[in-house]
């Protein structure tokens, strides 16, 4: 999508034969978590530096509108034009909870 090199990536986990949302609860950060909750990865053996490197490596992704839309109009840290665009794109998220936006960091 971004014009970068393309290659096939095999899907699936290598650390388990099972995968469920309940098995990762409390082990991955949520979009609403702040920096004070960075110690979440300590239980998996990550240092703060390693966690920041891991987070920084995820530069292209997507976010579900339901996870941030309530903050867009209330948070002054958003660029006003960007906030308006997010409001327009996510306007129907109550009807479609899977609605998401692509983001580049």
TrEMBL record:
GO biological process, one term: response to oxidative stress
Disulfide bonds: 65-90
Cofactor: heme b; Ca(2+)
Keywords linked to the UniProt accession: Calcium, Disulfide bond, Heme, Iron, Metal-binding, Oxidoreductase, Peroxidase
Identification of the protein by name: peroxidase
Pfam families, per the entry: peroxidase
Family: Belongs to the peroxidase family. Ascorbate peroxidase subfamily.
Ranges of residues in domain Plant heme peroxidase family profile: 1-105
Coiled-coil regions, chain positions: none
EC number(s) given by UniProt: 1.11.1.7
Domain of life, source organism: Eukaryota
Gene3D superfamilies: 1.10.520.10, Peroxidase, domain 2 (1.10.420.10)
Protein's organism: Hibiscus trionum (Flower of an hour)
């Amino acid at each position: 999508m971004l014009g970068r090199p393309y290659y096939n990536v095999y899907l699936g986990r290598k650390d388990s034969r099972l995968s469920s949302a309940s098995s990762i609860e409390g082990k991955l950060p949520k979009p609403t978590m702040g920096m004070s909750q960075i110690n979440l990865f300590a239980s998996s053996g990550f240092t703060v530096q390693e966690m920041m490197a891991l987070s920084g490596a995820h530069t292209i992704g997507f976010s579900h509108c339901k996870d941030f839309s309530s903050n867009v109009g209330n948070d002054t840290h958003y660029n006003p034009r960007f906030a308006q665009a997010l409001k327009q794109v996510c306007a129907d998220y109550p009807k479609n909870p899977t609605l998401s936006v692509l983001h580049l960091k």
